[in-house]
Design brief:
It is a single chain. With about 325 residues, the protein is an alpha/beta fold. It has one domain (about 30-330): Alpha-Beta Barrel (TIM Barrel). Helices cover about 40% and strands about 15% of the residues. It contains 13 helices and ten strands. It has an eight-stranded parallel β-barrel with strand order 1-4-5-6-7-8-9-10, surrounded by nine helices. The longest helix is centred in the middle third of the chain and has 18 residues, at about 150-165. It is globular and about 80 Å long. The structure holds ligand PBG. Ligand PBG binds near residues 125, 129, 173 and 283. Ligand PBG binds near residues 129, 212, 227 and 283.
Length: about 325
């Protein structure tokens, strides 16, 4: 009996939790700067960068200030940005035609960045919502629904122009059926063999995108409509795998799940099923929720890294997060 007492418990998991060094030796997942992509906003005709109410610590940049921001991100070890435009309101229209103007604001910003900093990886969305006056990601048919096949013809053109401007990774975020195949074919035909496609494959119709709408100033155009007729229903996971399978077959190099934290099960299932490069987007609402709680001292700052590690645990290879810059300073 005494003997038993002395020996028990022989398995003491706490041996490997004694101090930081030993904990790090047995860490199953690590977060590094290579895991982080910073989303950035650029606004046409902006003189000075401006803060975004609903996204604490994030700014709308001018054509000039974005260059300085990229320089700083590179110096912090960030290798990639996802760039989103806020275009001149007067250029928005029913069909989003400014999206296919090869000299539009975003294309010229991308060219400028690439001229200064060719090493930064630029990811750009393919979708019409920054360019339409109704805020939908595509063109509408006579019933007011987003017309799939007409839209992908425009997206094909938008993607081509982004690639020609120097975008390294084209990221269709529109959720039209068949868009990856059409864009891949166009890129191949134009000998843009090195342009990668990051498919927002499992993009849910989520309310966690709220602060993004403030960031890109689309709230007043979009109102309280929904994107339920093209983005995925939040209840589904088999459908997410179906979406990913289609995008891989159509030529996607990387697939993505979005949002992140409420969809960790989807990240895990996508990674386990396909073993493809799998990215996750910690979207605006997730970031702002944590930030607000941190600013109120309801949560400690360390929750941000904890949230990012949960993506690594779930199997994500890389994370788009508004916290990329601040976390890179800590790593
Ligand atoms: C546009 C787009 C959205 C986001 C990225 N690209 C919004 C939407 O689809 O309504 C959301 C990103 C975020 O919330 O951080 N197609």
């Amino acid at each position: 009996m005494t003997n038993f007492k002395r020996k028990y418990p022989a398995t003491r998991l706490r041996r490997l939790r004694r101090n930081n060094s030993i904990r790090n030796l047995v860490a199953e997942n690590v977060l590094t700067k290579d895991d982080l992509i910073q989303p950035v906003f650029v606004k046409e005709n902006l003189k000075k960068m401006e803060s975004i109410d609903a996204l604490p610590g994030i700014f709308r940049h001018s054509e000039e200030s974005i260059i300085k921001e990229i320089k700083e991100l590179i110096s912090l070890g960030i290798k990639a940005v996802a760039i989103f435009p806020v275009i001149d309101e007067k250029k928005k229209n029913e069909t989003g035609s400014e999206a296919i103007n090869e000299n539009n604001f975003l294309n010229s910003v991308i060219k400028n960045i690439k001229k200064e900093y060719p090493e930064i990886i630029i990811i750009a969305d393919v979708a019409l919502d920054p360019y339409t006056n109704h805020g939908h990601d595509g063109v509408l048919n006579e019933n007011g629904d987003v017309a799939n096949d007409e839209t992908i013809k425009v997206l094909e053109e938008q993607a081509l122009n982004l690639a020609l401007a120097g975008t390294d990774i084209i990221a269709p975020s529109d959720m039209m059926d068949g868009r990856i195949g059409v864009i891949r074919k166009k890129l191949e035909q134009t000998s843009l063999f090195e342009t990668a496609i990051l498919a927002y494959s499992a993009k849910y119709s989520s309310k966690f995108y709220g602060p993004f709408k403030d960031a890109v100033e689309s709230t007043k155009f979009f109102g309280n409509k929904t994107k339920d007729a093209y983005q995925m229903a939040v209840a589904n996971i088999d459908e997410a795998l179906h979406e990913v399978a289609l995008d891989i077959n159509e030529g996607a190099d990387i697939v993505m799940v979005k949002p992140g934290m409420p969809y960790l099960d989807v990240v895990r299932a996508v990674k386990e099923t396909f073993r493809m490069p799998t990215f996750v987007y910690q979207v605006s609402g997730e970031y702002s929720m944590l930030k607000a709680a941190i600013e109120n001292n309801w949560l400690e700052e360390a929750v941000m890294i904890e949230s990012l590690l949960s993506f690594k645990r779930a199997g994500a290879d890389c994370i788009l997060t508004y916290a990329a810059k601040e976390i890179a300073k800590k790593l």
